[in-house]
Amino acid sequence: MKLTTYKFFVMALFTLFSLLGCSQLATKPNSDKPSLEQSKANTEDSLFNRMGGLPTIKIVVSETIDEVSSNPKTSRSFKDIKLPKLKESVVSQICKLTGGGCEYDGETMLNSHKDAKISTAEFELFVAVFRESLSRHTNTREKNELLKILAPMKRDIVSYQ
Ligand code: HEM
Q1: Within this chain, do residues 123 and 64 fall inside the same structural domain, yes or no?
Q2: Which residues belong to the signal peptide in this entry (predicted)?
Q3: pLDDT at 13 exceeding the cut of 70
Q4: What 3 state SS string does 20-82 have?
Q5: Same domain (yes/no): 80, 134
């Protein structure tokens, strides 16, 4: 009789610990890491969404154009240019390039920059200002992805060393 009671307690304790152990195993991984579906959705989201959509693009383009149009090293190209219209055009282009679904009906990079005779130094300063603004408003991964998309435009925008 004594032995049976002892066995009953041992079995009851064993069952209790097993249940506790299982429930911890079942909940811990979910609370630490995103599910497979969640991580898949995160990696497949467009660059446009990941960088913060139109608000981020607008602020970055605005800050960049304000800086390059007032910096003596780059300002000459922007002398007679309507900046609000230019900002809108660049925003649409970047929105489209990053998967935001905007229409860009402006000129090609070759046509819109050929008369300005932009140098390598001017292009590099523009990109540096753009990079700094991106650093303030989006994450490193998204910043680098966008800069990688813009980099090949150099050959159409720059017309002399
Ligand atoms: C990757 C870098 C650049 C991108 C993505 C870019 C993009 C653009 C876009 C989309 C337009 C508007 C075209 C249109 O509406 O038809 C434009 C025009 C213009 N860009 Fe750039 N640009 C870049 C670099 C530069 C640089 C380095 C300068 C000068 C330092 C510059 C000066 C201008 C000017 C002055 C215009 C107006 C041209 C006009 O209306 O006659 N851009 N750019």
Answers
A1: yes
A2: 1-25
A3: no
A4: HHHHHHHHHHHHHCCCHHHHHHHHHCCHHHHCCHHHHHHHHHHHHHHHHHHCCCCHHHHCCCC
A5: yes
Same domain for 136 and 71, yes or no, is: yes
Please tell me the distance between residue 50's alpha carbon and the centre of ligand 1 in angstroms.
Answer: 24
List the domain range (segments joined by +) for residue 90.
Answer: 47-160
pLDDT tens digits along 59-72 = 999 999 999 999 99
Nearest atom (ligand 1) to Cα of 107: 16
Tokens of 3: 């032995």
Do 18 and 78 fall into the same domain? Answer: no
CA of 9 to the centre of ligand 1 (A): 80
Of residues 116 and 4, the one with the higher pLDDT is 116
What number does the ligand 1 atom closest to the CA of 126 have? 27
- Domains in the chain, number: 2
